[in-house]
Amino acid sequence: MPNFPELKNDLFLRAARGEVTERTPVWMMRQAGRYLPEYQSVRADHPFFEVVNTPELASEVTIQPIDRFPLDAAIIFSDILVIPQALGLEVQMVSGKGPHFPSPLKTPDALNRLDPSVADTVLQPVYDAVTQTRIDLNGRVPLIGFAGAPWTLMAYMIEGGGSKSYRNARRWLYEHPEASHELLDTLASLIADYLIRKVEAGAQALQIFDSWAGLLGPGLYRTFGIPYLESIVGAVKDAHPNVPFIAFAKGAPYALPALATAGYDALSLDWTMSPETVRGEVATDIVLQGNLDPCALYGSPDDIRRQVQHMLAAFGPHNHIANLGHGMHPDHDPAHAGVFIDAVHELSETMRAA
Ligand code: 1CP
Hints:
By secondary structure, the protein is an alpha/beta fold. 49% of the residues lie in helices and 11% in strands.
């Protein structure tokens, strides 16, 4: 591992490890991205995957929100879909629409097209981007590495892009359960290896995004979600036991009990989940992350402060990392993101003093 600059703000890492902190740390999912004019101006000259795969550009857009706001963590600019690319699938980013796979996996025979031998070549620029960003951050805040969860990636690989119900992908789970397990298993081992290598490249914490966990329901999630999230955290913790690892299973409260015992350090809640209920029913003292409704940022600054006050009261002063319940939207006003971040800082300090 290279010799990186000393970390000046370790609030996020201490909170993620369950230590008592002087205020609540805050970062935002999708904090680097389209709502920032400085991001749009980089994208005007460079296609999406060029930004991802050019360490200087990835570092620049990762640090843009850190320059603008007093955030407590950076998340490496990349995408969950680099993993399907690393298995040899083509992924295009269509502007205004999102990801598109020209040849998605239609039937189980298509699994033969997956070619993990290209993974190292495809993913090396991401590792280089992590190292470059960690150097450029100069210890201001810790750097989070991330991956998509196996089920969420499977959903895109079969559907071929974004979808409301991921009907084709869910159909596979019933129609081709063995092939589904084969695909999920291939993804889980690649993801574990990828996250381990991101840590070795400089990531100081990890998050796994199961954005479409909520489409499965408890039964299918137990079979096709949980075992793979368990195997990933097991492999990553064997290699790097002290690197905080956060799990985000959006829309899936039924995932939380198993994730709490699987070895994840923190659970990220979406805005439909109640922290009091999770603390009462799942785990009293696990670190929780979240969970302001991203749409709350469309409200007035006074409303945002009120909502933050409620959020902080609901989570309590310790074992909490403030965040949104999902990512920033492209039409969010950056000034309102600033109000959210400042409110977490100010109100969480006041609450501790009280
Ligand atoms: O034109 C553009 O600039 C593309 C917009 C964009 C951006 C800024 C995409 C396409 N990806 C990203 C960056 C990204 N994606 C980050 C950057 C780091 C940060 O958070 O600041 C991260 C963590 C992701 C992860 C990601 N990509 C997820 C999981 C998180 C979530 O939002 O649930 C998912 C589901 C994706 C797929 C994806 N990539 C891009 C889009 C628009 C989408 C979602 C499409 C859909 O709704 O299906």
